[in-house]
Specification:
The protein has 134 residues and is of the alpha+beta class. The chain contains 4 helices and 5 strands; from the N terminus they run βααααββββ. The protein starts with 10 loop residues before the first strand and ends with a strand.
Length: 134
């Protein structure tokens, strides 16, 4: 998508169920092997009573939307704010949504509101992304 095609209010989403394989692969790639994510025995002693997904694994779904749907191919991801509101458990279906909030035509920069929600419609991550396009 070209910058000129963007309009404030445009939205796109993607959904994914977070699996044990996702968490283990992310732990390997990121080297974040916090027992809260990979050990049920350790996680049972924690505040959530069970394993949770890495926050950045869940947030990466935002990147998927930006790079493949809105704005899509060629998007340069410049920045992201994130607020982790709720834990994501294995088996949760997460929907990442981006919405165009502001456009800067002089610099071809867009500000997008970003949200990840679980299958109950509860926000688990909220923030804003800054992207640049042709």
């Amino acid at each position: 998508m070209k910058f000129e095609e963007l309009q404030v209010g445009m939205k796109a989403s993607t959904s994914k169920t977070i699996t044990e394989a996702d968490v283990l692969l992310f732990a390997g790639v990121s080297t974040d092997c916090n027992p809260l994510h990979i050990s049920e025995v350790a996680a049972k002693k924690g505040m959530f009573g069970t394993r949770i997904a890495h926050g950045m694994l869940v947030a990466s779904l935002i990147s998927a939307v930006l790079g493949t749907k809105l704005p899509g191919e060629g998007t340069v991801y410049m920045g992201q704010t994130l607020k982790f509101r709720r834990p994501v458990f294995l088996g949760n279906c997460i929907t990442a949504t981006v919405e165009v909030a502001e456009l800067n035509p002089e610099r071809h920069i867009a500000i997008l509101n970003t949200t990840c929600t679980n299958e109950e419609g509860v926000d688990v991550i909220v923030g804003q992304a800054t992207v640049m396009l042709k």
